[in-house]
Amino acid sequence: MAQAEGSYYVPHESYWPVVGTIGMFVAVLGASIWLIGMGHVGVPVTLVGAAIILFMVWGWFRDVINESVSGTFGALEDKSFRQSMAWFIVSEVFFFGAFFGALFYARMFSVPWLGGEGANFFTGLLLWEGFEATWPSHGPGELGGDFRAIGAWGLPAIMTAILLTSGVTLTIAHHALKDGRRRLLNWGLFATVALGLLFLCFQAYEFYLAYTEYNLRLETGIFGSTFFMLTGFHGLHVILGTLMLIVVLGRCLKGHFTADNHFAFEAAAWYWHFVDVVWVLLFIFVYMI
Amino acid sequence: MESTTATHDDHYHGPASGIRRWLFTTNHKDIGTLYLWFSLIMFFVGGAMAMVIRAELIAPGMNLVDPMFYNQLITVHALVMIFGAVMPAFVGLANWMVPMMIGAPDMALPRMNNWSFWILPIGFTLLLMTFFLPGGAPASGWTIYPPLVLQTGDAFPFLVFSIHVLGISSIMGAMNIIVTIMNLRAPGMGLLKMPIFIWTWLITAYLLIAVMPVLAGAVTMLLTDKYFGTSFFDAAGGGDPVLFQHIFWFFGHPEVYIMILPAFGIISEVIPTFSRKRLFGYEAMVYATAAIAFLSFIVWAHHMFTVGMPIGGLLFFMFTTMLIAVPTGVKIFNWVATMWRGAMTFETPMLFALAFLFLFTIGGFSGLMLAIVPADFQYHDSYFVVAHFHYVLVPGSVFAIMAGVYYWLPKWTGNMYNEFWAKTHFWLTAISVNITFFPQHFVGLAGMPRRIPDYPVQFADWNMVSSLGSFVFGISQLIFVAVIIGCIRGGTRKVDDRVWEGSHGLEWTLPSPAPYHSFDKPPEVR
């Protein structure tokens, strides 16, 4: 549909939001039932909810892609999508901020205070006698037993290299798209997806090593908590980013996107770079320092 | 439908029929209406809980409910009022008014707009169903501090997931509002020509995007602490329960402004209309709003002066907190200056706006008292705090919402509400809100702690007064509902497009009732 000048596309009624609502309700209801100790009911219900959500995502995105391909969206709609994706990423930044905040607080305040630093001399002396505030720490209760932290310059350094390289291949793909070089675009995207999957394999192996060799667990005091929650949530975001890139790759192979109209590609790319940056911060603050 | 959307002309279809209209709608007015009705229902759900709380407190001794259930009531009352009544009411007003005020056809992302609303009811289904679970509803107070909240029974995951769901709703709503304001303004409407309500909501939306994810992070840590063995808030593992308070209040303090900045916006629309003058110091109002929003991020620990922070922390958070009085003062004085020598009339929206001005300022002053660290050591966790935040939330946020509803209801429906009953509603509400909450200052300063169902006999008289006031307040709100329904069903007369003699802005150029689609062609703004 050719757009009248100055008009903005307002879609028809859509049932996808309500489908998504039902899926979300079933999923969190199932998860709650699972957590209160009825996993045999809760887990299947959660999976049904997740399936409904996936169905919603598939259907909703199919609608939007069809609209996009048929030329419904003009420059203004494109701008709306871009800005909302940017703000979504900002909200994700703040989500990670909460966990980074917990890490910094533990290292700067709570662990030293438990060791008697500053005005907390008697906390260290009377409550937790003999506790030495060091990092990594599993606290004065030595929760989870003896453990070792994973050094920065083994697996994590390789993973950093993989993720940074994937950022490069994605940028190559982006430039290829802008220059109309479709083969390079497809290969660049393919390489990015492959590197993303490789990263995930490495991370799975790292978690496996942590549990089996290093005795580093989610229950390993504040270090285990911050380590697994930060790297784990990052891993979930890599999974999501990879899925986005796979969809975008599929669309590229179908011949979607033009040099100046490729919002979905850019959204996925922004998300991927955001995940990259979070990893670099993780590498510095969780593994290196 | 995906194939038909592209071939239809999408700007000239009316509402679908029956329930489909409300479930599948992409129309900003429909969604705004859903938000507003939902908010009103939640106002009565939370209000019913408040009535039980005040009935328990009407006299010393255990009168009505057992202490555990009392704690559940105070917790869920707060969550329902904050996330169910006040926030959705403002989002509903934004949905209705933002496109109309900036000259847009609709919100920028209409389908996501629908989703933002419809996950609210499921969030509250999750929260309210916990009353019927073993162990009852969460009973830790709405601030859900560990380690207490970790003792919650089966309600716990439902609480956490309901907060996640409500947070997702708020973030999507905020994204939509920002994008709409940034992209869909009529040609000629520069940023500093936007109505002040638009400005306050824009800044509120930024706050929502920044802090709702932080709350999600905090409750996620609670969840893993309880079920997956992490020790974020467990000193034995090197964590700290106080860490939760820091994260929570990093969300919680901006949240306070999320609930008052749109109120400032409404008041800044109502006062000029009924003073028949333009808003005094428009740009100063914009900058003051932005300054309040910025400061809200660096004051959070004033909610936790008594946890044992280093003295440097206490001083920093005391001074930054007091700094907020400056931009807030700018706003109060600008409202007063707007009225100065205006040709004022006192229709119901104006009455609510004036009551807001007086009573919110009282809440602001008690806030200043609480900001002073050594004084706060005395006031902390007393009924003085309860009086303070109810003064800023009830005659603050809620009065502003009511002012907004009375102000725009004729535009929405095309009918004038019944002025006599609206004024009756106002006077009963304004008097009873003071009878309810003002005595709580006294009992608080005399040492009555909050969140306790029983109290020594010396507090009996003022608690009796407070309870009686609250019952009048509660019953008065039925008049509100009656006036709204009466207005929708015809009201006292038809209104013209302008509705109010002194009104300015694009929303008053549309017909009354406003057409299903706001501006098909963007209006020209000079």
Structural overview:
The complex is a heterodimer of chains A (289) and B (526). Chain A has 289 residues and is mostly helical. Chain A has two domains: 1-73, Helix Hairpins; 74-288, Four Helix Bundle (Hemerythrin (Met), subunit A) (Up-down Bundle). Chain A has eight helices and no strands. In chain A, α5 (155-179) runs antiparallel to α8. Chain A is globular. Chain A starts with 15 loop residues before the first helix and ends with a helix. The model of chain A is unreliable at 1-5 (pLDDT under 50). By secondary structure, chain B is mainly alpha-helical. Chain B has one domain (24-508): Cytochrome c oxidase-like, subunit I domain (Cytochrome C Oxidase, Chain A), CATH 1.20.210. Chain B has 16 helices and no strands. In chain B, α2 (28-56) runs antiparallel to α16 (460-488), α8 packs across α14 (383-413) and α9 runs antiparallel to α11 (325-339). The longest helix of chain B has 36 residues, at 67-102. The two termini of chain B are 40 Å apart. The chains are: A mainly alpha (289), B mainly alpha (526). At the A-B interface, α1, α2, α3 and α7 of A face α1, α4, α5, α6 and α7 of B.
Characterize this entry briefly.
Chain A is mainly α and 289 residues long. Chain A has eight helices and no strands. In chain A, α3 (75-114) packs parallel to α8 and α5 packs antiparallel against α6 (182-212).
Task: Tell me the layout of helices and strands.
The complex is a heterodimer of chains A (about 290) and B (about 525).
Chain A: H1 16-35, H2 39-69, H3 75-114, H4 121-127, H5 155-179, H6 182-212, H7 221-253, H8 263-288
Helix pairs in contact in A: 1-2, 3-7, 3-8, 5-6, 5-8, 6-7, 7-8
Chain B: H1 18-24, H2 28-56, H3 67-102, H4 110-128, H5 155-183, H6 196-227, H7 241-258, H8 261-275, H9 282-295, H10 311-323, H11 325-339, H12 348-371, H13 373-379, H14 383-413, H15 419-445, H16 460-488
Helix pairs in contact in B: 2-3, 2-4, 2-16, 3-4, 3-5, 3-14, 4-5, 5-6, 6-7, 6-8, 6-9, 8-11, 8-12, 8-14, 9-11, 12-14, 12-15, 14-15, 15-16
